[in-house]
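Complex 407.
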Amino acid sequence: METPSQPSHDRIIIFDTTLRDGEQAPGAALNIDEKLTIARQLARLGVDVIEAGFPYSSPGDFEAVQKIAEVVGVEGGPIICGLARTTHNDIKAAADALKPAARSRIHTFIATSDIHLQYKLKKSRAEVLSIAGEMVAYAKSLTNDVEFSPEDAGRSDPEFLYEVLERAIAAGATTVNIPDTVGYTTPAEFGALIRGIKENVPNIDQAIISVHGHNDLGLAVANFLEAVKNGARQLECTINGIGERAGNAALEELVMGLHVRRQYFNPFLGRPIDSEAPLTNIDTRQIYKTSRLVSNLTGMLVQPNKAIVGANAFAHESGIHQDGVLKNRLTYEIMDAQSIGLTDNQIVLGKLSGRNAFRSRLKELGFDLADQELNKAFVRFKELADKKKEVTDWDLEAIVNDEIQQA
Ligand code: KIV
Ligand code: ZN
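Predicted structure with 3-methyl-2-oxobutanoic acid bound:
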């Protein structure tokens, strides 16, 4: 059995669930090769944990988790995680799929809110309590690293939640994840929920507190930042915030929020206020590339005004703003475009652009094409450049996606 992960408490653990909860977004299905490409890029980005899928849900998901465990879950790489309901079959499938990984985690969950118990599970609180304990213990017999989630924690009775968490930790959970499954809570409420857990679950010091949240009211990132202030040390998130319904908390927003405002967050992590040490292990210069890759492969477009990675996130349109930025960028920019991997001087492609400029712009957009594909895409680009003065990133993406589909 591998050694359990011992994440340090003074850094925030980034748990990426793009390939599991993100892929649950309507229309975002990915094939195994695409999942592997994204998993490799997530490892370059520096995420601590990749939730690679839900192995029992389909043979395809099982195979994808297994492949990612083998190729990306190598020594020194991220922890590879598989989701499982609290059943023997689910947990065994997750353990089997994760076997090739150097470090693996089983993430098992059961709902705790009365509305889920009454209508979905048709079980009593006592039954849920004992299932949670038994199934965490079973998962623990298969791996040292077990995460437990009380689904719909945001709408659960806190007293019952405390009891379930205490039972899960006693049975061996090393991470307890608190999901706001339907994106219902507000930042103050979510922060208080995490504080309540810290103060009322007697064995909470034996586990990392994690948070997971959906964006139904557009509050997921704000909720997580409040959770960090109150003791959460793992954030579950997706690239571009994709996921069920309105999506999950967006990784790039959380990471840049912690990065840009580190002096604000440092004291909550017990650090000196002016510490420059990074708050996460993320290489922020990989953010833009990862965002483009996920958007291209899932087909989920990023809105132009999306924070951090939207096309307009670093664009200044009004005269007053342009004038200010030319005098000093800090007048209207709180972070620098290079910190997320954008080059300062964006190359504008046109009919005089050569193959190298074309290749390098595609790389920035997350496309690493083989020579043959690149040649074909370059011919298409030249044809278009003859008709248009400037070829935009949208045009380039359309050309490449067309070529990839035809290949
Ligand atoms: O939103 C949710 O509650 C989930 C759990 C499986 C963690 O995705
Ligand atoms: Zn979720």
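The two ends are 43 Å apart (CA to CA).
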